[in-house]
Amino acid sequence: MQLLHPARTATAHPRTILNTARRKALRLAAVAAVATAAAAAAPAALAEYPERPIQLVLSFPPAGATDVLARAVGQRLSQQLQQPVVVENRPGAGGAIGLAYAAKAAPDGYTLYLAAVSNAAIAAATYSSQPADLARDFVPIAGIGNVPHILVVPATLPVKTVPDLVRYLQGAPGRYNFASQGNGTLSHLESELFRLRTGVDVVHVPYKGSSFALPDLMAGRSAMMFDSIPAALPHVKSGKLRLLAVASERRVGSLPEAPTMAEAGIRDFGVNNLFGLVAPKGTPPAVVQKLAAATRAALAMPDLVQSLEAQGVQLQFTPSDAFARMIGEEMRTWSKVAQAAKVRID
């Protein structure tokens, strides 16, 4: 008779069970350690920005308003960020050269662009093609203020007021010219707006920035120019240029006697010259926020405010979102002026 025995189930050795449990525990510990390290790495990396010098690109040559503003603000940003801020002048093509250079830079926070917003809006409206777009190819960091332009003429010109200038130019249609900082710049379109509002016939002579235009203006080879206060005012004080009016909507504190264009009798003429900092599209939001905080702190420094206001610069911090809206508004405004003046640059 065959005996039946119950089936045996193999039982794992106690040491094998212990080793398996230990391996699982080690794997879980390793995963947790990696996750903890990754979580800590992001703030650590942010805290380390910036680790090297920052390049601040602008589209105009040295000595103009943008350059003066860039160097003054850049120095204070350097103090806030504890890294050098190096100004890089890349003028030409109505600002397109500097704009394109900055747009193509790595979006890592180490290349910033000091945007002459009004100028960029005009260039977008007047050039048939642009290698970069301020609204599309950048992220706004902060608005930093307004640098109003002034209308100046050679001291030798026999005019003392804006109405005098209008009558003088109307007396010889097509004989006189106006200088500008370049094709498609604010300096250019301000004069085109002046032509629209007064009906004068003057010829445009573009230069590569104020530093090239002002010598010819002072020599009388041009009859008028809209230029920045930091660039033109020293020549007004020296007696080589005569200041007729400010282009902005309100008078400038450092030039209390200078009327606005509206006060001088030119209707619908109020031009602000907006500036701000932007970074290439794709720059991490945390880096943008850190730069915005540094900008706010820099613009609050009393010595910066005092020195730049004396040169006609009106500093004002504008947060990123509001600054983005300002860029859009300038784009729409100058598109309308360019169409009315029939200004196209190929």
TrEMBL record:
<protein>
    <submittedName>
        <fullName>Tripartite tricarboxylate transporter substrate binding protein</fullName>
    </submittedName>
</protein>
<dbReference type="Pfam" id="PF03401">
    <property type="entry name" value="TctC"/>
</dbReference>
<dbReference type="InterPro" id="IPR042100">
    <property type="entry name" value="Bug_dom1"/>
</dbReference>
<keyword id="KW-0732">Signal</keyword>
<feature type="signal peptide">
    <location>
        <begin position="1"/>
        <end position="47"/>
    </location>
</feature>
<comment type="similarity">
    <text>Belongs to the UPF0065 (bug) family.</text>
</comment>
<dbReference type="InterPro" id="IPR005064">
    <property type="entry name" value="BUG"/>
</dbReference>
<dbReference type="InterPro" id="IPR006311">
    <property type="entry name" value="TAT_signal"/>
</dbReference>
